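Lab notebook, bench 4. Still working through the backlog of constructs that have no structural model yet. Next entry is a single chain of 194 residues. Request: give me the structure tokens for it.
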Amino acid sequence: MNRINGNCGVKNEILMKYHEKTVTMAKAFDQTIFQHVPRALNEESDRFSQLATTYYDQLPNEVYIKLRDHPNYEEKMLVTVLEEPEDWRTPIARFIATRQLLDNKLDVKKTQSKSYKFHLYQGELYKKSVEGPSLLCVSVDNIPKVLIEVHNGWCGSYIGARYLALKIIRTGFFWPTSAKDAIMYVKTCNACRG
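Model written out:
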């Protein structure tokens, strides 16, 4: 707290970079107030801060972790879904990012009507959710990985197709054919059939 307010110096090289980033971000606002929250009053954040030293097998099944390949203080160039191979997300992401529409008038209407349900965040397309946090839109290439992980990976318990489709959404993922893909995946699962 004292470091942010300038009352105390920052000596650690890594903390200096976080400090600089915080001060730079604070300048973008007309007014900022930093308030210290004791660990006892901030249990959820404290638990998340301890994940780095937790073994994966000790985590609850519902915890989904995205590993970062760079520290938070580094500026990350946003890589949008537009640079990936084109799939179902591309027209929506392109429209949200650039308001650029396709030539086909039927596709234009579909894309415009769909786009209000989605948003871009740090180069990733998310679907807005009424039930909770936004859902990460999964590329066609990653659909099999998500199906395997939710069905019989960390989150899995060899569940039926209907519940698998619901669990995909509860785990934080979305793609338009998830229910149909869940049915097909369960039909081909040897552990479910035998």
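Notes after review: The CA atoms of residues 139 and 169 lie 15 Å apart. The beta strands are 118-121, 124-127, 135-137, 173-174. Flag for follow-up if needed.
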